[in-house]
């Protein structure tokens, strides 16, 4: 595997052992989108999510030296989601304390965050990861296919039937199946590659 593509453990080790700006930039490139979607999954609005993203990144930078990578016991993304949840909770708790305890929006978010225990965080981490990594894989491979193949696959992702896709694009159903099959094979490989590199 090339130096450009590090496994999660290697990237974390580099971040833990030294202030390596390139490794940190690589980490942010791969993970800021994931952190953002997890924050949004807690019911946080877009503007607050962007602020919290920065707070989480700062906390990750500070906490990484203490993190021990043990994939069989605790995946990195589960640890990360616990940190995201706690940062989000503390943010809203602080806001509620400074302003009115009756602020319904703060109370609603705090209440929903209170109900998220560690097994729930693990479920959120996995669900959001699968979606995030699939989107990243598609963005990485989609330009290697024809426009028709891309449109066919995207329609199938929107749960259109083969028959409807064929009619929409005026192509035989057999062509729809071929496009989907080719792209699916490439996607499976790319998702596996990303999971290996990013600690899946």
Describe the structure.
By secondary structure, the chain is mainly alpha-helical. It folds into two domains: 1-125, RNA polymerase sigma factor, region 2, helix turn helix motif (Rna Polymerase Sigma Factor, Chain: A, Orthogonal Bundle); 145-200, Orthogonal Bundle (Arc Repressor Mutant, subunit A), CATH 1.10.10. It has helices spanning 8-17, 21-41, 46-63, 76-98, 104-114, 118-141, 147-157, 162-169, 173-198. It starts with 7 loop residues before the first helix and ends with a helix.
Supply the key terms.
200 residues; mainly alpha; Rna Polymerase Sigma Factor, Chain: A; Arc Repressor Mutant, subunit A; 2 domains
Percent of residues in helices: over 70%
- Got a strand count? 0
CATH topology of the largest domain: Rna Polymerase Sigma Factor, Chain: A
Write down the Rg: 20 Å
Give the name of the CATH superfamily of the largest domain.
Answer: RNA polymerase sigma factor, region 2, helix turn helix motif
SSE arrangement, N to C: HHHHHHHHH
Structural class: mainly alpha
Distance between the termini: 16 Å
* Name of the top-level CATH class of the largest domain: Mainly Alpha
Tell me the CATH architecture of the largest domain: Orthogonal Bundle
Please tally the helical runs, counting DSSP H or I stretches of 4 or more residues.
Answer: 9
Spans with pLDDT under 50 lasting ≥5 residues?
1-7
Mean pLDDT: 82
Task: Give the biggest sheet.
Answer: none
Name the overall outline: globular
Q: What's the multimeric state? A: single chain
Number of domains: 2
Q: Give the percentage of residues in beta strands.
A: under 5%
């Amino acid at each position: 595997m090339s130096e450009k593509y590090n496994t999660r453990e290697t990237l974390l080790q580099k971040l833990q052992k030294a202030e390596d700006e390139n490794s940190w930039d690589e980490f942010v490139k791969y993970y800021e989108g994931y952190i953002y979607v997890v924050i949004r999954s807690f019911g946080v609005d877009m503007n607050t999510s962007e602020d919290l993203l920065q707070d989480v990144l700062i906390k990750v930078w500070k906490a990484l030296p203490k993190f021990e990578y043990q994939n069989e016991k605790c995946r990195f993304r589960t640890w990360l989601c616990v940190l995201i949840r706690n940062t989000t909770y503390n943010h809203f708790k602080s806001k509620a304390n400074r302003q009115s305890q009756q602020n319904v929006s703060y109370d609603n978010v705090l209440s929903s965050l209170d109900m998220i225990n560690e097994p729930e965080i693990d479920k959120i981490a996995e669900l959001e990861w699968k979606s995030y990594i699939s989107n990243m894989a598609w963005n990485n491979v989609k330009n290697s296919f024809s426009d028709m193949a891309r449109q066919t696959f995207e329609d199938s992702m929107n749960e259109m039937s083969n028959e409807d896709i064929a009619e929409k694009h005026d192509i035989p159903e057999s062509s729809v199946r071929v496009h989907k099959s080719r792209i699916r094979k490439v996607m499976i490989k790319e998702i596996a590659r990303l999971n290996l590199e990013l600690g899946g």
